[in-house]
Design a protein that fits this description.
CATH superfamily of one domain: Catalase core domain
Radius of gyration: 23 Å
Distance between the termini: 83 Å
Structural class: alpha+beta
Oligomer: single chain
Largest sheet: 9 strands, antiparallel
CATH architecture of one domain: Beta Barrel
CATH class of one domain: Mainly Beta
Shape: globular
Strand content: 15-25%
Amino acid sequence: MLKQTWLWLGRQLGRMLLLLLALGLGGWAAGTLYYKEKHSGPVSSEEQIPPGEAALTQAIIEDAIRIVEQHRDNTRVLRDAHAKAHGCVKAEVTVLSDLDPSLRHGVLSEPGKSWQAWMRLSNGNAYPQFDRTRDARGMAIKLLGVPGEKLMEGARHDDEQDFVMFNHPVFFVRDVAEYRSNFAAQADGKKALAFFPSWDPRTWEIRHLIIALKTLAPAPQSPVATTYNSIAPFKLGPHNIKYRVIPAPENCPQYRLPEPNTDLPNFLRSALYQQLSLDRVPACFALQVQRQNPSYYMPIEDPSVEWDEAVSPYETVANIQVPAQDFDSTEQNRFCDNLSFNPWHSLPEHRPIGGLNRLRKAVYEAVSVYRHERNGETPNN
């Protein structure tokens, strides 16, 4: 009798699990079909600025300054994101000699041209933490000696062109309104509510939560061993594009980094120092662009959507070399800390577009000014 009871319970449990599995798969299939139907082309090739974005931007600036103050290092005010640098290194960016004429715009207008640059490699968090902690990783490149009128006024940036990236292809919010809601929850210390703003399931952002979790990835072996993405779109002359930087070890002498000790809090800086300063081996990358095809779902205003490479593959436009160098000095680290990177330090041919980039223009500048004023410093370049 007892055996029959357990067998019956087992059958019922099995049926229940199968039912739950069927419901889950059905829900996933329905969600996938709904997403494909709702998010299908064509899309606009022009920016579409929603009403109220300016007020939301001001509120985000206030939240960003709150976060900066929460993460002060003793008396020093840090960046509101990417606070911990692995190093600022000198780099050279060389435009392909046979670049497609349709892509020759801005700093890419002269095939074979080489630009000297600073490259900052960093963790994404607003507070310095152990490198083995799951986090985003960032790369910012500042080209130097770039002539021409820039989009942001100010003599400090008259000769600069900045590129700002991190190592995930999409962002975890779709627009400025969602960024405001998400960022406010984080500033209040309520990270769990960032993707669940109310009890109404229709407001839940499960897909964006998954993107955020994927963004917080294990550390690469080295800061020069991962791909960095612009996430948001930009102009390249008449084109709407996204760009990325990928490792290109084939362009450098063969090198194998010794196995890193991930128990060290700053092992990513150590890996960079090992390659560039001790072993004296350069690191190589390729700068690539992906053109928007508005006939497909490649939106400008939603950076949570990855543009399909099968529709529009990335094209290499320049090579980047980080030469062997000594970079880990007190003076250079302080110089690095004072550098201000902003995608709006830019020629008009590379104008940032989309809501996330419009937000960056205001927030990056406001937080940079606030940080340097509180630290009693003048920003470098």
